[in-house]
């Protein structure tokens, strides 16, 4: 949530997109919890439904980010430096790989591609945090164009991972 707030304050579409990935990750966590509650624990189709729901959660982000980049470029909007954004992405860059690897290992032990896919989202979050952090750094020296470039890459990676998760594959970051 802090990433989204920082992005809105700085008008950084990459930081806004990254902040939204945090919300998408929370949704994916809820999907995995749903998968392992009640009668779904032993239901044959529950894993596939959860896996596809996780894939859909990857896709929630891409269209918004692409449209936001297009709008900002058309309107001439430029992002401002964001100390809060730098702090939040740095924390994520450190913590998300640990969480992602743990979830992927748990997914493998449970034979749950949905759980492993949710861990992949944490790894994706860390990778994107690194890109956004680099973009924010370049923004402080006036290279405004790095922000929409990072945001576009963020959208493409999210769409690709959604397709892979839909097909039952988990990316190997």
Automatic annotation (TrEMBL):
Primary location: membrane
Localization per record: Cytoplasmic vesicle, Secretory vesicle, Synaptic vesicle membrane; Early endosome membrane
Highest rank taxon of the organism: Bacteria
Bilayer-spanning residue ranges: 12-33, 53-71, 83-102, 123-146
Pfam families per UniProt: Cation_efflux (PF01545)
Secreted as UniProt keyword: no
The keyword Ribosomal protein belongs to this UniProt entry's keyword annotation: no
Molecular function terms from GO: monoatomic cation transmembrane transporter activity
Annotated Cation efflux protein transmembrane domain residues: 3-164
InterPro entries documented for this protein: Cation_efflux_TM, Cation_efflux_TMD_sf, Tmem163
Keywords, sorted A to Z: Cytoplasmic vesicle, Endosome, Membrane, Synapse, Transmembrane, Transmembrane helix, Zinc
GO terms for cellular component: cytoplasmic vesicle; membrane
Membrane topology according to the record: Multi-pass membrane protein
Family, as annotated: Belongs to the TMEM163 family.
Entry protein name: Membrane protein
């Amino acid at each position: 949530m802090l990433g989204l707030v920082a992005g809105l304050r700085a008008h950084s579409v990459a930081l806004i997109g990254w902040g939204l990935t945090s919300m998408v990750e929370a949704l994916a966590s809820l999907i995995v919890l749903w998968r392992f509650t009640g009668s779904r624990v032993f239901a044959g189709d529950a894993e596939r439904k959860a896996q596809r729901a996780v894939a859909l959660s990857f896709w929630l982000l891409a269209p918004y980010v692409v449209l936001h980049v297009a709008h900002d470029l058309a309107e001439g909007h430029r992002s401002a430096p964001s100390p809060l954004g730098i702090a939040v992405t740095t924390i994520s860059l450190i913590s998300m790989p640990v969480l992602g690897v743990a979830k992927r290992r748990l997914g493998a032990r449970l034979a749950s591609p949905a759980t492993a896919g949710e861990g992949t989202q944490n790894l994706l979050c860390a990778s994107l945090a690194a890109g956004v952090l680099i973009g924010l750094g370049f923004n402080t020296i006036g290279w405004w164009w790095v922000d929409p470039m990072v945001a576009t890459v963020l959208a493409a990676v999210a769409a690709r991972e959604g397709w892979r998760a839909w097909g039952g594959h988990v990316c190997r970051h």
